[in-house]
Amino acid sequence: MYILAPPFFDKQLKKTDRRFSDIGFLMGSKKRSTKSEAEVLEGQTDLATVDAVSVPSGKKSKIGNKSDAEMGDGVASSSSVADSIKPMERKKKRKQLDKEKRRSNLENGEPQPKQLIVESKGNDAPEPVASSSSSCLPEFHISVFKDLASADSLVREAAVETMVTELQEVQEAYGRLEDKDLVEGGLKLEAQKDDGLDNCASSLRYAVRRLIRGVSSSRECVRQGFALGLTALVATIPSVKVYSLLKLTVNLLEVSSSMKGQEVRDCLLGRLFAYGAIVRSGRLTKEWFSDKDTHIIKEFMSALISLASKKRYLQEPSVSIILEIVEKLPAEALLGHILEAPGVPQWFEEAVDVGNPDALLLALKIHEKTSIDGKVSKLLPSPFSPSKLFSADYLSSISNCLKESTFCQPRVHSLWPVLVNILLPDTVLQAEDAASASNSLKKHKKGRKSSSSEEEIANNVQSFCDVVIERSLLLSSHDRKHLAFDILLLLMPRLPSSFIPVVLSSKVVQCLMDILSTKDSWLYKVAQHFLKELLDWVRNDDVKRVAVIVAFQKHSSGKFDCITKTKTVKDLMAEFKTETGCMLFVQNLINLFLDEGHASEEPSDQSQTTDENSEMGSIEDKDSVGIMGNADFLKGWVIESVSSFLKHLKLDPEAKFRVQREILKFLSVQGLFSASLGNEVTSFELQEKFRWPKATTSTALCQMCIEQLQSLLASVQKVEEPRSLANALEPNDLGSYFMRFFSTLRNIPSVSLFRTLSDEDKQSVTKLLEMESKLYKEERNCGLGNDANKLHALRYLLILLLLQVLLRPGEFCDAASELIICCKKAFAASDDPDSSGDESNGDAAPELMDVIVDTLLSLLPQSSAPMRSAIEQVFRYFCGEVTNDGLLRMLRIIKKDLKPARHQEAGSEDGDDDDDDLLGIEEDEDIDEAETGETADSDEQSEDSEAVVGGEGDDKDLPEDSDESDGGMDDDAMFRMDTYIAQIFKEKKNQAGGETAQSQLVLFKLRVLSLLEIYLHENRGKPEVLTVYSHLAQAFVNPHTTEGSEQLEQRIWGIIQRKVFKEKKLPKDDSVPLSTLESLLEKNLKLASKPFKRKKSASTLSKKKLTASLNRYKMVVSLAQNSTYWVLKVIEARNFSDAELQGVFGLLQAILEGYFGSKKSQVKSGFLKEIFKRNPRIGRQLFGFLLENCGNAKSDFRRVEALDLVIEVLKSQVPMNSNESNREAAKKFLKSHLQSLGRLIETLVTKMPEKKSRKTEVHKCCDKIFQMIISLDLTKTFLKCLGTDARSACESQLGPVFLKLKNLN
């Protein structure tokens, strides 16, 4: 007999405890508070009996001294269990306890009075036999059984160590006895039974029996603890025979017909854990090594297989126990002792028919150690090989076994990791990914050689996914669909990127989309988890990320995000960070575009739906007729995505240029050209081969390519770094590269343009190519500077105009010719024969700029967003040279009116030509509800208008690219454009769903406003700002100008606020006379004081129209007030003298007269107060007039309200904390107005308002005035100005406020 060393013992305990916990997890066991049969037995008969035996001689019996709690050591005391059970259940358990007690006594063959005899020994009366025999045996403490049930694994392990150590000592002492019958003389306990434990001490017998019964308890961690104890005990003490344990397990945990479901389950699980303890003790292996002909392993296997056949939930853990034996036994023992055990051959034979995945698992694990060909012919192919194992026929034959593995969900059956290991045995293919990343999915990959093993693995994966995933699991129940996704997650860590298209097949992607498209689906969270794990797996691998994107979009026809209502593909595309990854992605998108068999044959129902979250939601809007079917939709997604993913990409300029060049070549080839012969063309000049799809690309897709080309070139122009072209042999100029690429392909005989052009369009294309080439040379020769910027901007405008000619032939020939002429005149080379124009040099410059402006304006109506961006870039560099005629031409467009003549007054026709009338609002002074109500139909957001009125701090502007539709209208003063505009409107109206002339004009105005905003930014502080401001103000005030468009109103408002009112540089040029500023000020003051008129027609308007009308009135008044502040700021910046500003003072004085003289005046005191606050000089000049009129006001309300104006002027002129010089000036100012102040205060106190709030305002005003008088030592002078009656009135009305002043005299 041997004792395990402590370190090894501790290690074994921890390992075994964890394994038993694993078995518990396999079983899905739950905590229960009910008391099993084993617990009842442990708490009653065995407890008392063993205590009597374990007492050594010469010591008093401990039973009588033990508390009830100690009597319950083991699983649980009866009282503690009863407390946790409800009353009715407690009664049932008590009856059951009595029943089990009687049955236990009958089974042990002991009379009922036995317990009474044992209990009587607690009264210090030792039993003779026990005392004479037990003196030679050590004591065994049964309290360890209680610790075995602890939830703390450390406590359980300590209890096991204590129990094994004590029982070792007991057994060793027992073995040294010569006469063993004396020890068992009086009480043999349960050991009297024929249990095979003949050579074991009574305490050891009791412990073994109790441990076997304990593993059937389902309370807390009892099963794990007792199984751990049984394992350690059997492994340590050889006297406990395996045969005896098998017999005891069956006898003590026998299932009878009277047992209920839970009792049966506990007994069966108890057997399972007991068998597991035997295996993990290592005794079976030792038995075989000591006797290779032993039958114990066969008996054990037969018992375990019999147990596994009883219940389905016992099958997998039983096989896991067998697998532990398989791991420990050598190969020669497996054939004779495992496979030939009674019941095992029949179990394997029936596995395929009944669908037993555990039998298949066992067969595969045994085959790993030794060949079993022919032994399990139905389960495994013979001879065995991975190719035969994953052949379609074999996988179909075992499909039942694979399907039935779902019973253990949500856990994945142990069979699947074994199959995955065989399917993908190593990571050789993954290492190959890094070496062939750029070749893995490139075109012509048929020529790429691969090893036979790699081909075999690829075939196996193909067959596995086809038969198991697609045909067996995905077409079955929800549980099996769940299993399919779990298996795919098992494959992912080992899966090479070249296998991703096989695994993410059409059916897998369709199933995933169907689930994700419905949030109420039972599998929705499963699919979400799978998608999350898949994205995490590809996050740091560009090759895998590309393969996943292509698989998703290929099998969803480019609608994966749309159908699943996610941003999966969009987010994946945003994760490219390297040039290699971007190039790989672009190449795969090109292959996807050229692939004819890409469309899914079985699209799901949801795949036809659209969603606003999809990144492809805008494709159908671009050409509702051209793009038809899923194939074109996928190609459309490729076209849109191939350039859009670069928007947020951060690469160094060289790398980004190379990626953009590949994209540009693809878009150019597929969008601009077609092959006349076949679908492949080789360019020897470019040393490159170009391919087209076998089916002719639709016109709609070609137009999409051209639009994306324009967007790509426009984005490059926006973010380009400063150019140093002088010494660069091959500059990174994408526009220049495109023009050379376009010219080269155009000259290849077997390549033609995608559409036939007219002679005029062909001529325009040729001239545009020539002019761009000239400007490119000129740009490289002139170096850096503004001229280089102009040339660069014009070049890109020419490039985009060339694409526009191809996109919309027949519409841009005239504009192209005019632009070419402008380029010739603007940058005429010395050796250019066309450099001398027809016009004389004296007036060439202004006429040139007018032509440039006209040309840019003519391009705006029909241009795309990239084209408008290029126009704005050109205008930005030329706007400093724009003439007044060109500027006024743009401003007249903003003021253009399409309202019928009955809405205009007779003299309104001349209003546009009156350049001296800077604001020109007299014609539209009646801002009435009837007129403005007509424009309110399209204003859905009246609350936004009120927000704009809030003050000058609100300058939120609308996005510049909000006008996406084509079309527009030019100025009627440009005679060359009248016929052109009429033609545009005619075409638009003839189109189905075309916009009206009014909406076209609004869009055109928005585009011109973008140019004006650029002009204001580039010409800050110049006199032209006043011109732009005045015309924009007229357009804003005139209700017919904005055509009821709130977008246009707020655009104008935002430009005026941001570029005029808030601009720090003011127009200080003397070229603007003061009279002009005075006129502008007068009109703004009139507009700010204009009342809101109600007409009779207003009674018939809806509440919505009335609200919109009132909001517009408030916006106009706010504009007038802010304009007044700005004009006064401009005047003040010119440093005029007081004498020169008498006209300005007179205007403000007239406003004050109206304010005090009329009760209907709409001038707000806050407006006047702000004027005095911002312009102290105005307050100083008008203070006397203000005091006089305040005292003579016709109403108490107006008089009290005007006191704020008085205090505001005094604050600016009489500061409380001032130096000596300022003090003298303030004293002089206040002293000159003391008489008027006295009269005002006398009026206030003699005509004291009756309302309390107004009285309070009067008191506050007088108090502040008195404080200023006191601070400047003018008390005596002021009191002299007050008469006797005035003093008396002040004392009575003001009280302490005046008495304080009087007492200082």
UniProtKB/TrEMBL annotation:
In terms of superkingdom, the source organism counts as Eukaryota
Where in this chain does the entry annotate a coiled-coil region?
none
- Where it mainly occurs, coarsely classed, is nucleus
| Subcellular location field | Nucleus
UniProt keywords (A-Z) are:
Nucleus
Locate the compositionally biased regions of type Low complexity: 72-84
Entry similarity comment? Belongs to the MYBBP1A family.
The molecule here is called: DNA polymerase V
